[in-house]
Amino acid sequence: MGKKKRSLDRESGCLTVWGCENINDPSDRSPGPFGFPEEAVTQALCHHWRQPVQITEETVVYASAYMDRPRADAWAWPDVGIYLSSVWAEEMSLASNRWAGPRIGPSAELAVLSCPDGGSPLDEENTERVLAYGLRGSLQGRYVEIGCNAGHGRTGMALATLMILAGLDAEAAMVRVWECYCEFAIESPGQERYLFDLSKRLGRKKG
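^ that's the sequence the OP posted. Answer follows.
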């Protein structure tokens, strides 16, 4: 599908549009390390910390990048935390790679899922089961957080997975993630293939 999908003319229906700020100043031709002018490079200034993302009309989850977290004493664990990067485990005293347990304190359930940077889930069935659990939790009014390291590839893929589980087809889910969360989310062809495969397995119809 590639990056052209970001220009698709659709009603986003977003709860609110957040995302990244792009900087591309054609007048910026600063000298390179050898004295030659360098072309301006488009840069993304991203900050993803507990950013609300509307999955359906009734469900909102919160997307986070581990690298954007505040200092340790400035935040608490969500009701349900689903993380696709092992770096989150460094902050946890207890975690699980299945479902969304065990509990920490009165309500927190945390899962760290196996998924390589830029890749798709290593255990698709378990990942989809845990994300479905998170979707149900959000419907019940629980605070559900989805995260990876930088908040782009794996987090965007997980958000689109939630949307597919909720009924969207893969293309509609990806466009919604790009429009309502961040245009740099879902960053690899492998992640897109996984989403199209999931959509096909679940019988989601385009449109």
